[in-house]
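Please predict the structure of the following assembly.
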Amino acid sequence: RKEVEQDPGPFNVPEGATVAFNCTYSNSASQSFFWYRQDCRKEPKLLMSVYSSGNEDGRFTAQLNRASQYISLLIRDSKLSDSATYLCVVNGDFNKFYFGSGTKLNVKP
Amino acid sequence: NAGVTQTPKFQVLKTGQSMTLQCAQDMNHNSMYWYRQDPGMGLRLIYYSASEGTTDKGEVPNGYNVSRLNKREFSLRLESAAPSQTSVYFCASSEVGPRTAEETQYFGPGTRLLVL
């Protein structure tokens, strides 16, 4: 079983739409959770960390559900520039990060 | 600050050839990582180094060796390249590792490797 699983998409949405991605993780001992963004043929970059109480950064909201072992990312008022692949990342043993395979988002005009 | 740099950007090898991928960071980070990214597979950890002088295996270490030359540099060596090692290789660094939600990994631009 993979450490981190994501729906690969693609999610095709119009500008202005709200879109949500989920991610499940297998290690109940994981403590740190992140969403990274990766543009085509580029390196991943941190979008936001995910805190137990949930957190928001502008149009982006991240939630953590420890009981069900899943993380979500909500994007409101989608922009063309949000088109990218979104990677869910969870820590495993000390110093190891586990990446999901990514969810591709296409925002259309 | 350059952040994380990797060389080369592209490489074509024949089966059985060897090569070393270089990575350097100028952020004074303790932890460094090598990943490979294949279509539909996400990033998989090859090796990591929690601090200068230490290295440990990740998920997919077979066929690779690493050297943490100093705090700045972490190299990945393919001793005898195989077509299955065709991939995009990313180096990353972080201050101390994923112990808190504050920890950020910074990635290099990647090396695209084709093994024929």
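Chain B has a mean pLDDT of 91. The radius of gyration of chain B is 13 Å.
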